[in-house]
UniProtKB/TrEMBL annotation, chains A, B:
Catalytic activity, as annotated: [pyruvate, water dikinase] + ADP = [pyruvate, water dikinase]-phosphate + AMP + H(+); [pyruvate, water dikinase]-phosphate + phosphate + H(+) = [pyruvate, water dikinase] + diphosphate
Gene: ydiA
Keywords: Kinase, Nucleotide-binding, Serine/threonine-protein kinase, Transferase
Protein name as it appears in the record: Putative phosphoenolpyruvate synthase regulatory protein
Keyword Kinase: yes
GO molecular function: ADP binding; ATP binding; phosphotransferase activity, phosphate group as acceptor; protein serine/threonine kinase activity
Enzyme kind, highest EC tier: transferase
Amino acid sequence: MTAARTIFFVSDGTGITAETLANSLLSQFDAIQFRQVRMPFVDSVAKARDCITQIRAAAERDGQRPIVVSTLVSPQVAAALREADALILDFFSIFIAPLEAELGTRSTHTIGRSHGRANAKTYDDRIEAINFTLAHDDGVTDNDLDMSDVILVGVSRSGKTPTSLYLAVQFGIKAANYPLIPEDFERNRLPGSLEKYRHKLFGLTISPERLAEIRRERRPDSTYASIANCRAEVDAAQKLMRREGIRWLDSTSKSIEEIAATLIQEVGINGKAF
Amino acid sequence: MTAARTIFFVSDGTGITAETLANSLLSQFDAIQFRQVRMPFVDSVAKARDCITQIRAAAERDGQRPIVVSTLVSPQVAAALREADALILDFFSIFIAPLEAELGTRSTHTIGRSHGRANAKTYDDRIEAINFTLAHDDGVTDNDLDMSDVILVGVSRSGKTPTSLYLAVQFGIKAANYPLIPEDFERNRLPGSLEKYRHKLFGLTISPERLAEIRRERRPDSTYASIANCRAEVDAAQKLMRREGIRWLDSTSKSIEEIAATLIQEVGINGKAF
């Protein structure tokens, strides 16, 4: 294995955009080992010079020049960083100019816009969505269900909770979730409290084999985790969802991002990605 | 107000990277109204042509050409989309070429790498972090605290829960959180179960005025929410944290992203941003 390359994420804000961008790019070079260094809150020329010192040290240690992915709003700070001997991919300097030309206006060059609290109302709504989602996990309450943007249903351990939290944190979506349990299958009906929110329901299903695997980690050697029981529950849940006309998705080989992207399209929710 | 411009997020995967990047750019043009259209899973030339049809319709309605932010791994699909009459900011075509030159290797051009389940182990670890964080919210259990990456402490409603969930969802960090309550202040000591994890503790504080505001929404006219009580609790919590040598941060005007970025640096955690 060759020595790792160092990649710096430099930002005048949190650096989360820079890191998301960089990880997306690096995932296209999976044979290469990268050492990642975060440098958030670089909001002055002096701090940019500190970065250059660290970039130089990494270059000497690695024997090759580092890569820098940056999101620097200030042209002065960006210019200072360009003195570094590195491949610098500066997101704003590449994309802001064509956008300014297209929109016929100058950008505001304001630091900390995308992950700060620039818009307090939007921010507070998102925190409220996180609190709502947490309070409505696993069907613990029927209160305020009319305030939800979506209600996820599915058998225990089909992926409802991580998906709900992802929707809340990343998109500010109020996502309640409800388990479908053996009693629902016996009655072959939705839990009564959900009937009037049918248009908000979205189902998750999962392969019985994967479900048994996940459940075994929690409760080894239980009926709950047995493949026979998992098959019966998944089958009953799918029958119920089909009968009730609920849209659903198989989560078996999907990430929470993929489930979320599909769900947002299908349910028609307008969340903003943060 | 001028008519809204339409901006399309086009991706062969979830589109979450495209949307995050676009929102970061658009936040620099806050005087302009944008109408956002998500187009995830555009993984064929035929689907790219469907996009072009929608882009044309938006151009006619808006009376100005749309903006397209895209993350298309396939050169064929990207080329097909370039036929659209729009300002196209294609993120991969701009950044991948210089990276290939720098790294002396071709990229893999694999779709769905950054937000899929390409790396099952990393993905499963992250889901486990979400479950761990949820199970360790608000000090509900002392079990497995040694497995945590960080333990947040602070008075009730100082921002611990949203921050913990953000750390788990975005970075795959196992974040427990513990409320500091009047009994802790009376004893002027940390809750006993936390003593041996001092190196993992990170405190949040908040201005008493903002705290009272948040608490009043939950329990109006309560002692809990009174400004006198909030002042006393915040004061006692800060004294306790100072005495115990716990690093802390004022969350009053900070977003969960800003708190997370600072915390990760200070505690020295290696999470990956998703």
